Automatic annotation (TrEMBL):
Residues 1-49 are annotated as: Disordered. It comes from the Bacteria. This is TNT domain-containing protein. GO terms for molecular function: NADP+ nucleosidase activity. Residues 102-202 form the TNT domain.
Length: 203
C-alpha cells in the first residue's frame, strides 16, 4: 500500500503563460494532469513489447481482451508466454477428491461451449466458478436435461485463470456409451450423449 505524506503546497503567484494555457481550455496544465493522461493511455494501449509477444501466439487475443486480462495472460502458470498455449489445471481441474456420481433422469445440467467436450456442471453454476480459460468468455451457453441415467466424475473446480473456486464440475471419461444406431460403443462426449438419447438440450 502506498504511504501518504502530508506536504504543504505553496502556490506560485505567477500567472500561467499562454503556452501553458494553449489546448487546455484556458486552464493551466499540471504534472498530475499529465500523469493521469499517461495512465489512461497505458490502460487502453498495448505496449510494443506485449504486442510483439502476443503476435507470436497461435490464438492471439484482441488487444482489448489482452489489456482487460493482462495479469492472467502474463502469468506463465496459465499461458505459455512464447506460444500462448493454454496451461490447463492439474487433475482435470478438480480441487481435491473426485466422487463417482450417477446423474438421474430429470436432472438439469449445463455447459459453456460446443458439445464435443466432456465437462458439464449443475445448472446455474456461476460462470466465474467454472475455472474456464479466457477464450470461453464468449462461448455459447447450453442447458440439458438428463433422459437416461449415466455416471460422471464429480468434484469442486480448482481455482484457475485467476477465477475463484467453489463450483461443481462433472467429467465423463474412462468409459464408453452405447450407440443406438450402430450397436457399438462411442466416446462419452456431450454430443454423443445427445445423439444417443441420454441428454436433451432444453436451451
Amino acid at each position: 500500500m502506498l504511504s501518504q505524506t502530508n506536504v504543504k503546497r505553496v502556490e506560485s503567484p505567477t500567472r500561467a503563460t499562454e503556452t501553458q494555457r494553449a489546448g487546455s481550455g484556458g486552464q493551466t496544465s499540471t504534472s498530475s494532469d499529465t500523469n493521469r493522461a499517461n495512465q489512461t493511455q497505458d490502460a487502453t494501449t498495448i505496449n510494443p513489447t506485449d504486442k510483439a509477444k502476443i503476435d507470436e501466439w497461435k490464438f492471439r487475443p484482441s488487444d482489448d481482451k489482452y489489456l482487460s486480462n493482462k495479469k492472467t495472460y502474463d502469468n506463465p502458470q496459465y499461458y505459455n508466454q512464447e506460444t500462448g498455449d493454454i496451461i490447463w489445471p492439474p487433475n482435470n481441474g478438480f480441487d481435491g477428491d473426485v466422487v463417482r456420481t450417477e446423474l438421474k433422469p430429470g436432472q438439469v445440467i449445463d455447459r459453456y461451449g460446443e458439445p464435443g467436450g466432456n465437462f458439464l456442471s449443475p445448472d446455474e453454476t456461476p460462470y466465474e466458478q467454472r475455472a474456464l480459460a479466457l477464450h470461453s468468455d464468449g462461448a455459447e451457453y447450453h442447458v440439458y436435461r438428463v433422459l437416461e441415467a449415466f455416471e460422471v466424475n464429480s468434484g469442486k473446480f480448482l481455482a484457475w485463470f485467476d477465477r475463484p473456486d467453489g463450483g461443481t464440475q462433472y467429467l465423463t471419461e474412462n468409459y464408453k456409451i452405447y450407440n443406438i444406431k450402430t450397436g457399438g460403443l462411442v466416446e462419452p462426449t456431450v454430443e454423443n450423449f445427445i445423439k444417443n438419447k441420454y441428454l436433451k438440450e432444453i436451451n
